[in-house]
Specification:
The complex is a heterodimer of chains A (about 250) and B (about 280). Chain A has two domains: about 170 residues, Rossmann fold, CATH 3.40.50.300; about 60 residues. Helices cover about 35% and strands about 25% of the residues of chain A. In chain A, helix 3 crosses helix 4, helix 3 packs parallel to helix 5 and helix 8 crosses helix 9. The longest helix of chain A has 18 residues. Chain A starts with 11 loop residues before the first strand and ends in a 5-residue tail after the last helix. Chain B has one domain. Helix content of chain B is about 75%, strand content about 0%. The longest helix of chain B is centred in the middle third of the chain and has 34 residues. Classes of the chains: A alpha/beta (about 250), B mainly alpha (about 280). Chains A and B meet through helix 1, helix 2 and helix 3 of A and helix 1 and helix 4 of B.
Amino acid sequence: MNQIQASAETPIVLDATDVVKNYGARKALDHIDISIRAGELVALLGPNGAGKTTLFQLLTGLFVPDGGTIRIGDADIRRNAVPALAGIGVVFQQPTLDLDLTVIGNLRFHANLHGLNGREAGSRIDTELAKLKLTDRARDPARALSGGQRRRIELARALLHRPSLLLMDEPTVGLDPASRRDLLNHVVRLCDERKMAVLWATHLVDEADHADRVVVLHQGKVLKVGSPRQLVEETGAANLHDAFVGLTGPESD
Amino acid sequence: MRIDHAYLALKALTQREGVKFLQQKGRLFSAFVRPALWLFVFAVGFRGVYGVDAGEPYLQRSVNYEYYILPGLTCMVLLFSGMQSSLAMVYDREMGVMRLLLTAPLPRWYLLTAKLLSGTVLSVIQAYGFLLICLPFAWFTGLRVAFNDPLGWLYVFPALILTGMMLGALGLLLSVHIKQLENFAGTMNFVIFPMFFISPALFPLWYLQESGADLVYWIASVNPFTYGVQLVRYASEGQFYGLGAVVVCACTVGFLALAVVGYDPQRGFVKRGPKPA
């Protein structure tokens, strides 16, 4: 069984145990265990097809695992989905902004779906937009934003209801290097400031370098878990990139 | 589930439907032009050929054709609007917005019901919009394209809501099975057109019986749209069609229940997730 262990003595926010997901005969996820504590940034590093998106779909309740349990805080996502989902903020790999609505329209829609009333929603929207330096774009249609700005709006939206766990599924796909760096830095700050747990899926090794822990996922299995430094030391590689390629094979590069 | 949370979600969904509808000028235009064309081209042409011996709920022996098809065309607005909701669900799924909806911390049955209610509000507004458009034509052309009894406008309100909900629920159910927007043309051919044409929207069903088209008559008899049209037709004449109300309500509950099962990741038709890479 693959093990991903958190080390800090802080509350466990995500606890997934022995998770299995099959698509027909193919094992998309093979007995995965994950626990993430508050304030931890965990990078889920794997090549395309490793099972990252499948894991996210299970964590968000979009699909159900064939085996194992997933708990967000105290709530089992399968048996008690509503409180579990209330604790999650998600930035999906696929863009999910409604391009026909304005920025503020998108944020208000999400806020209402999460039960935030007008005044509270308005205040939080203002706060998040200011932090992401997008206040001046609030009235613009989402369609008019650049790719990087759309991603920042999706992040702002995911944070509106103050989740304890932020799930980000390859959020930097399609972004230029500067936008990637800004997004990552902002999330790192969020971990510190709000003590929020973050699971950041990526296939880009330089992003994983900023994480507290890295989980290397390949063909539905966890190959290695540890801090970036630990992974480098344990594999005897020169750096995290070489460690990742050494673990998953050159085609992952 | 908190009541205020449920209300906020319903409000958000309704506002979004409304904003998107108003932004889509083509959809707004076609919602009114489609039935209006039927009424002022098709009906006007046929009114010179014959009146309709429509039977119940009409009290007079012969009814002008344009007057006969008015409830049917109003239901046509509801039918297209319901299917449009289905299309919007498929579009949302392709655009990723559906994920946002399905990961909201509300029971999935409630999210789908709220989606249905918000779509129904839009459907009923469109139906009244069509009836309003008919009014000036009635005044200027002398065509009987307004209800006999002005109170008919009020009487049809619950009938339009019930029928709109039934067709919206059918749209939700179809959206479970329509995987891509490209498949929507199939919905047009295999759902919308048969439902509309094999119903009393354009002619009384006894015409079918009389002409010996027993199979078509039987299909029309089991077509839920038939009962929606008749419910609205009876209401427009200030009468209540009990069988229609029962069938429409039962179909609404049935379609919605199947849609909820379809969207349930543990039991539904979409539970398998993405195809393997």
